[in-house]
Amino acid sequence: MWTYGKTGAFVKILRRFQFGCVHSMWRRGADGRQRRLCGLVSSAGPPWRLLFFGSDQFAVESLRLLTSSRNSSERTVKTLEVVTLSGDVPVMRFAQQHHLPVHQWPPDIVDGQFDVGVVVSFGCLIPKSLIRKFPHGILNVHPSLLPRWRGPAPIFHTILHGDTTTGVTIIQIRPHKFDVGPILNQELHHIPENCTADELGDALATKGANLLMNTLMSLRERLALQQEQSLTGATFAPKINTSISWIRWEEQTCDQIARLYRAIGSQIHLRTTWMGRTIKLLDFAGKCHISLSDEKWKPVPGTVTYQKESDTLAVCCKDGWVGFKAVLLRKRLTASDFYNGYLHQTVKKKMPYQTAEELFVSGEGVTVAHQIRENSVL
């Protein structure tokens, strides 16, 4: 049996080495620089010496909470330094305003200099050699219920695909792949009706920051109880680019166009073509209810008409009509400006068939002429 005397003292020292010493030990490397010995400097628990990796506005909310934690009574964070990408990114601005030490990517740090890393919306894969420098690993705040929507644009795809629930997940990152590490913490979030990607991003940034703090406060227990991600239900959320902004009137429903606008409309304008020119559609007005005076007339997808009462351009899509209050054609035009300047003369002709002047055409210009021939009443 163990006795407390000298043996007990040895156990105390052993535990101290196991969980980390308060004081740092150093050795001098071949290059003459002093380096810390890794196993002797890791904190047993909070407050942590933390290195934060981030770039955009979503990441700032977590960095803000970590920064304020240094002066709080809970003292979750002891020291805080930042790694960010070059350029005038939100995380860089925040770090400079709050006098946080900043490292350029990739950071030149030594083993055991920090206890734990935190990655929030950073965009660069962390190599195995860097992960190993953190005794407690590197945590990632991800705005989805992993394994759903792995990848760089989970919020956009959550809105685009009509999900009614999402959440935030704290994982421990692994090398070589994004968003595949074990889950340490997770919280559900119900998506309000007609929520935009910007609104959802703001809500999840706040929720993610609070969940991160909760995880750091009980990190050792969370690491012990970590769960591998499910092998089923994984989906990928690739980057959003301008190619997704082209509306395909003959394929997309009113709800799909509405979700597309709520997902990307604040960053990328929805687009169509008219008379061979690109038109950007602004100020989405939702689904329109159009009553046709001529019941024999069957409008094809892409048909555009002006609604004077609501000052709206209504466009026919797969299952109905959607409205826009303005367009961008060389310059911004209100719906009435576009009607008076471009559509009015076409409407005055009162042709018994549709002409190109009355149609918004999908990006590839697919089969629209054929649809006109098939559906027009001569």
UniProtKB/TrEMBL annotation:
Compartments in which it is found: Mitochondrion
Keyword Repeat: no
Single Gene Ontology MF annotation: methionyl-tRNA formyltransferase activity
Chief site of localization: mitochondrion
Recorded catalytic activity of this chain's protein: L-methionyl-tRNA(fMet) + (6R)-10-formyltetrahydrofolate = N-formyl-L-methionyl-tRNA(fMet) + (6S)-5,6,7,8-tetrahydrofolate + H(+)
Pfam families tied to this protein: Formyl_trans_C (PF02911), Formyl_trans_N (PF00551)
Keywords annotated in UniProt: Mitochondrion, Protein biosynthesis, Transferase, Transit peptide
PANTHER family for this protein: METHIONYL-TRNA FORMYLTRANSFERASE, METHIONYL-TRNA FORMYLTRANSFERASE, MITOCHONDRIAL
Protein family per UniProt: Belongs to the Fmt family.
Function: Methionyl-tRNA formyltransferase that formylates methionyl-tRNA in mitochondria and is crucial for translation initiation.
Descriptive protein name: Methionyl-tRNA formyltransferase, mitochondrial
Species of the source: Channa striata (Snakehead murrel)
